[in-house]
Amino acid sequence: MAVSSEFEMEDAEGEPSEGEGGGDSKAEYSEDLKAFVGNLPFTIDSAQLAGLFEQAGSVEMVEIVYNRMTGRSRGFEFVIMGSVEDVVVAVEQFNGYGFGGNADGRR
């Protein structure tokens, strides 16, 4: 998987997403707390991704971006961590991590 704390939001605008963490998925979080996570299996859900990222720190919310036409994940997500330090640890720990058996995580 690819994990970065630097990303462009334009690709995700207007797409439905699933939030995890008990809060409103429209809640405002500092951009410094968001990590872009790509190259994941299309079948991953927010609970699986939150469980993985909790190894790096506190997870506030997970947003999975879905394709409007198919209802399937688009293969990238946003994880909102509890602190900037947690984001740094997550990026270092999971960038290049193979989720789901393949080097890039996809099945």
From TrEMBL:
Keywords tagged on the record: RNA-binding
PROSITE patterns registered for this protein in UniProt: RRM (PS50102)
Signal peptide: none
Alphabetical list of SMART domains matching this protein: RRM
An example Gene Ontology biological process: chloroplast rRNA processing
Annotated segments matching region Disordered: 1-28
MF annotations from Gene Ontology: mRNA binding
InterPro entries: Euk_RNA-bind_prot, Nucleotide-bd_a/b_plait_sf, RBD_domain_sf, RRM_dom
Chain intervals with Acidic residues compositional bias: 7-18
Residue span, RRM domain: 33-107
CC per GO annotation: chloroplast thylakoid membrane
Pfam family, one: RRM_1
The keyword Nucleus is annotated on this UniProt entry: no
Protein's name according to its UniProt entry: RRM domain-containing protein
